[in-house]
Structures are given as C-alpha cells and as structure tokens.
Write a structure and sequence with these properties.
Order of helices and strands: HHEHEHEHEHEHEHEEHHEH
Number of helices: 11
Distance between the termini: 21 Å
Mean pLDDT: 96
Largest sheet: 5 strands, parallel
Radius of gyration: 19 Å
Structural class: alpha/beta
CATH class of the largest domain: Alpha Beta
CATH superfamily of the largest domain: Aspartate/ornithine carbamoyltransferase
Bound molecules: N-carbamoyl-L-aspartate
Strand content: 5-15%
Length: about 325
Amino acid sequence: MVLQASALLNVATPERNKWLKGKSIVAISQFDPSGTAYTFDVAEEYREIFADNRRRLKEILFAFQLANLFFEPSTRTSSSFASAMFALGGDVISINGVTYSSMEKGEDLIHTVLTEQEYVDAIVLRHKDVGSAAKAAGRLGIPLINGGDGEGEHPTQALLDLYTILREQKRINGLTITLIGDLKRGRTVHSLTELLLSYDVRLNFVAPEVSRMPVHIIEKVKASGVPYQEYTDLHEVQKTTDVFYMTRVQKERFDSEEEYNKVKGLYRIDMAFMAGIKSDAKLMHPLPCLDEIAREVDVHPNAAYFRQVGNGKFIRMALLAMVLGQA
Ligand code: NCD
C-alpha cells in the first residue's frame, strides 16, 4: 500500500506539479511542507511502480543525462543518484575525486561545471567548500543538486531522512527527535534540523562541547519556536526519544588529530542501550558508521539505517524527475 505522505502530513500540494523544473537544489530552505510532501508523494509513486513493473519507469528520464561530480568521498549519495537515474531510464557520467579530473591539472570548479553542462542535463556536485554548490549553480543554465558542500548542507539527505522518519513512525508531528554526535561538522544534521523546524516536533541535540550545533542553526531553531534542548549525556534522553539520529565524528574536518581524539568514541549505541529505549523508537544514521553503533545493532528491528539508505534511491528518483521537468 502506497503511503500518502501529503495526506498523512495533512498538507495540500496544489500546483506543485513541475514546480522544481529547471531549478537547482542547493539548500533545504527551498522545501516548504507542501514541496516536501509533494516530493514524498512522487517518491512513493515510483516505489510502487518499481516494485510492480519497473520497466514502466524507464520512459520517465529516457535520453536524459546526469553528471555525478564527487570531489569528496561518497558511497551512498553517488550510488543512489546513479541508481535513481538508471531506474528512470537515464544515463550517468561519473567523476570521482579531483585526481581523475582536470581539477588535478589546476582547472577550477566553475570551468569544470561549465564543461559538464555542455554534455548533460543536470549535475550532482559534492565538494569540500561550504557554498560551492550555490556558487556553481549560479553560473549554470541546467539544474545542479548539492550532494554535500563541506560542513554546509546536504539537502537531499535531509529529505530522505524526513521521509524515513515518516515511513517508520507514520507521522512527524508530535515526535521527539534526538540528534547525536558531531553536530558542528556534520552537514546532514544541519539540513535535517532546518527541515524539521516546519513541523510540530521536539529536538534534542546531544554532543560534546567542541562539537555542538553551530550558533547559526541554533538561532534558526529559536526563531522557529520548536522546543529544543542541548545535552552531553545521551542517557538523559534514552527513554523519551522517538527517533535517534546518530552521526559519525567527521575526522577529516578536524584541525588536528588531538582534537579528534578528544571527541571520538564518546557516544556508542549498543544492544544494552537499545534495550532501554521506547519499544517503538527508531535508530537512524546517514552512514558511514564507524564504531558509534555496535555492529550487532544492525539486525535490531528498530535499527532503520539500511531502510533509510533504500529510501534515498526513491527520493533521488523523485528529485531528478522534478528538476528535469518530468514530475
Ligand atoms: C554523510 C555525508 O557525506 O555528509 N553521508 C551521506 O551522504 N549519507 C555523512 C558523513 O559523511 O558522515
């Protein structure tokens, strides 16, 4: 049975058809509750067709081409965009890492994307610099999707995260959502927090002093009126949380190994912790997961992070069809 996101969220989606046509997706602020619900409805429709008769999807982006430009490491974001494009009948050019592109020879980002624009219909970009996606999008005549800009944003991840919360809990309003780990340097928690501010939720931020949620995000939370609290001890919110969103300590974004060592290993979710959570609470993680979740938790029914991965494919199918004017 298809999940009617807009109905579940009680959000109307009038005139949302083709609203993203030709547009870039650089920040999560582009998605209001109606645009978000529309995206989820398209993703659900594609999920159902994919399960039923996936060949029917092949016409949607037939003969369209995407360039996947990943200048920071990626497994899920790059694979899911490629898989999404293939599922809709399109084709993908992949550039992974500066080393194997002309950026290694000194070409800058703008010339790189202006070049790719001559070959393809849309670009997904992951780059280490905050603001790189917006900068590149500003120079392009085709849609650019931000696949992560350093410590900045990861808007498509936030959409698949919220979609996962909705699928797992069948609601968003009324939930207590706890974000844990490197809230300062992790871009997924920045975009997800901002997206959640449009809903009737309660937020907990669990992080050590040196990895607290950045002030500019806290300011947005305050302005929204969404109740929130900051903690250093995860156990304080163990029994009141509906969704735990664990994150990796972003080693590559620390100034020194010494700083990193102070933070790594502070939070770890294991089977003993899972035994003390609400029976219907869910555990999410954008992945990659190092040792912040014990491997035996992978098979716990409330561990939702691999279902979350799968949801990413359908959200990216929806977004690609939308920016290319086909949904
Ligand atoms: C995250 C990212 O790249 O920001 N991964 C992802 O896209 N699913 C999380 C991380 O790297 O920790």
